[in-house]
Amino acid sequence: MNHTAGNLKRRADIISELAEKLILVLMCSTCLSDMEYTAVMPVIAVLSCITLGCLSTVAKSRAVQYIISSAYIICCFAHPVFALYLPLTAYDISRRRLYPLIAPALAALIYCTAEENMWLLVKVPAFVVVAVLVEKLSSRSGRLGRELIVTRDSAVEYSNALMEKNQRLLEAQDNEVHLAKLKERNRIAREIHDNVGHMLTRTILQMGAIQIINKDEELKEPLESIKTTLDEAMDSIRRSVHDLHDDSIDLEGSLRDAIAPLRDNYRVNFEYDISDHINGKIKYCFIAIAKEAVNNIIKHSNGDAVTITVRDHPGMCTMCVEDNGQCSKSIGTGGIGLENMHERVAALGGVLNITPGKQGFKIFVSIMKKNGE
Q: Distance from first CA to last CA of the chain, Å, rounded?
């Protein structure tokens, strides 16, 4: 992209410079009416200045530009008519900073004015000044244009950087709000469990004691109804507490805490893309498997990189833990930790694949969302 933009810019500069030189050629050609020449030499001079002017414009080598300008100055010594187009050479000298050629160009102009009338001495130096001014204005305009582009690009980059920074701040703010919600849910669940739950439990026990000591047959049915209502209320509160507690689990934060011991000796790549509304049973399963996998990596892996990927799919949740160490196939079988993984995943109707080998150790878990409900 930058290479293409550079080529387009160079083409634009070449076209602009050729247009300016054409204007100078037309301006210098007005002097031909003041001089008496055959039809051949002015045509040769015009064709020579146009050809050399075009070559100097497209030439990239500084040495070639020196040669082209020097060749035209030599032509001026050969015939005075070439001096009419010295302003083009002055334009190239100013634009390419060919300052050592200033003295030879002045010598050629003086030599030609000694051979011709005073019009050369008046008009040609004036045209030289015009050519130099045109070049300076053109260079300044180009420089200002480039500075404008740089300023615009810098402003765009600064604006993009600010937008990215604002986005990160918004994400951090959202994360803090989410964590605050989780903490508040956890606090509410704890308060319900410690206060309302205990009070209901005490009331249920007291109601059971009243039922035992009650001798009035008319009170048995109302007491049983109250006992049933209290049991239902207790079950409802228990479910609500469990739901609040499950929602308050920060799966991403728990997984980051679980893999934190790896960061001292391994390059860790953690990719997390899963909904916050995943069932708590799946969250507990993923956290337990991640902890066990981390312990196995620390104990057995001889690799230096670990990748943990957690994904949320339309009908399932997946987690993959893999390292780049070499291990024997026997590690993937037996062991209390691996058996616990299988049991946890099987309890949720999921699939657990363990792939040991020379290319690394890989644990892949897939659990259907409906199985975690």
A: 52
